[in-house]
Amino acid sequence: MADLMPLQGFAHVEFFVGNAKQAAHYYRTAFGFTPIAYAGPETGVRDRTSWVLAQGDIRFVLTAGLGPESPLVAHQARHGDGVRDVAFAVPDAEQAYRVALERGASGAREPVIVEDDSGKLVTASIHAYGDTLHTFVDRSNYSGAFAPGYQAVSDRASDGTGTKAPLVAPRGTAVGLTMVDHVVANVELGRMNHWVDFYAGVLGFTQLVHYDDEAISTEYSALMSKVLWDGTGRIKLPINEPAQGKRKSQIEEYLDFYGGPGVQHLALATDDIVATVAALRANGVRFMRVPDTYYAEQREKLDWSAIDEDLASLREQNILIDTDDEGYLLQIFTEPAQDRPTLFFEVIERHGSKGFGEGNFKALFEAIEREQAARGNL
Residue 140: is it exposed, middle or buried by C-beta count within 10 angstroms (0-12/13-18/19+)? Predict the structure, then answer.
């Protein structure tokens, strides 16, 4: 049967932030992203500013409202800096939107066609969990830096032909991040299966794996998670909900401080996690830590004949490792990227494994609980 809504991968992730210029500086200097496009008053946009940053195939859009009457400002006041839109690339945004609504989705923005000298771009948006959107993006007929209304950003005042660049900003020093591997949502207790059904029924996703509260738990708290995917691995969307425990779980802490459901973390892929994490640390990025005993346990537990890694290097950078029937993966998690204990990032390197580090859940959960305790929120 023909796929009525083919999804080609993550198009971009848009953040609503308090100050887009400062956020762009942070993601450039800390994570190595390069500014490639800008929209704001200088480009005719009166109510907001947006910086588009790129590294590998990753596109972040950092957007801030310009006045107290702006709904963007209200969103940021409620949630803090966080992800507003997880956008998907599609060959036909109008059809994707129509099919989504026929399957029960709630429309957020009807199809819009915008054009400039670089061609035309078609987008449409639907509502997801909380205040999160999914935008369908068809850029098959567009060759500009990002979208009509955005100016290209250069790191030089001239392109060498005598043409002055419209906007100049320094490049970031890339740290080896290549693509968005997966995007994780936190939802309220009892709502995980609702959103599993949403992604299955509306977007045609299937369940890749289910982790119950026995798999993801400590003495004090627990969570449950189901992973939805598009069947190819280009889009993977784990969905978490809290489980009953003795104390407040990390999911409940997130829901309290974010003010409802939203994106908990973005997993960014790399081909050399040791070098990437070393570069991020040098840039000032802070990571959650597991105890040194973790590595002694992994040395005994795992079959290292099938793992082409130096355990000492992983230990030095506090990188976690897990295996399954298809291979292994390496991963590490940052501390929250803003004042509120909400959004954080994962860096991941896969070697065949399609998993999410089940063998690391306990060590990671305990590391998160130590951070919660330090904040007085456990």
Answer: middle
- Summarize the confidence of residues 57-78 as an average pLDDT: 97
Question: What is d(CA 244, CA 256) in angstroms, rounded to the nearest whole number?
Answer: 16
Domain residue limits at 39: 9-152
Give the count of alpha carbons within 13 A of 58, CB side only: 28
Cβ contacts of 293 within 8 Å, gap of 6 or more: none
- Collapsing DSSP states into helix, strand and coil, what is residue 241? strand
- Size of the chain, expressed as the number of residues it contains: 378
Say whether pLDDT at 217 is over 80: no
CATH number at residue 57: 3.10.180.10
Q: Give residue 248's pLDDT.
A: 72
Question: Is residue 157 one of the residues assigned to a domain?
Answer: no
Q: In one letter, which amino acid is 367?
A: A
Contact, 39 vs 151, CB < 8 A?
A: yes
Domain count for the chain: 2
Residues 191 and 127 occupy one common structural domain: no
Mark whether 54 and 115 lie in a shared domain. Answer: yes
Distance (Å, whole) CA 66 – CA 95: 33
Q: Is residue 169 part of a domain?
A: no
pLDDT band at 274 (very low <50, low <70, confident <90, very high): very high
